[in-house]
Design brief:
With about 120 residues, the protein is of the alpha+beta class. About 25% of the residues lie in helices and about 30% in strands. The relative contact order is 0.20.
């Protein structure tokens, strides 16, 4: 299972645990969370927008150029596979909502069966 650690130290600890090494780390940015490689390079952003009906969460690809983070309009398949985003519109939104909720709790690991 693909999962992410809350910081570099926690990620390094996963090298010595059952269940495999964390894919990367997550970081708070604005109303959402960046999913980053182990070296800190952002790959996917889990965006959250409040609407009159309910909060919406969705994943988008991220690019870094000259030290600035740029958000794409969608999620490319390569980034989706790296982050473990399920295929399908509704499934990707459910995944993003669950990941956002886990990240907002400050859990050591997100993406696992953290409930």
């Amino acid at each position: 299972m693909i999962y992410f650690a809350k910081d570099s130290r926690t990620m390094v600890e996963t090298l010595f645990r059952k269940g495999g090494t964390a894919q990367g780390v997550y970081k708070k940015k604005g109303n959402g969370y960046l999913l980053c490689r182990g070296d800190g390079t952002p790959v996917v952003y889990i965006a959250k927008e409040r609407t009159n009906i309910a909060p919406l969460c969705w994943p988008v690809s991220v690019s870094v150029c000259n030290g600035k983070v740029y958000f794409m309009n969608g999620l490319c398949s390569k980034d989706a596979q790296w982050a473990g985003v399920p295929e399908g519109y509704m499934d990707s939104h459910k995944w993003a909502k669950a990941m956002h909720e886990q990240c907002s709790k400050g859990l050591d690991y997100v993406g696992r069966d953290n409930g």
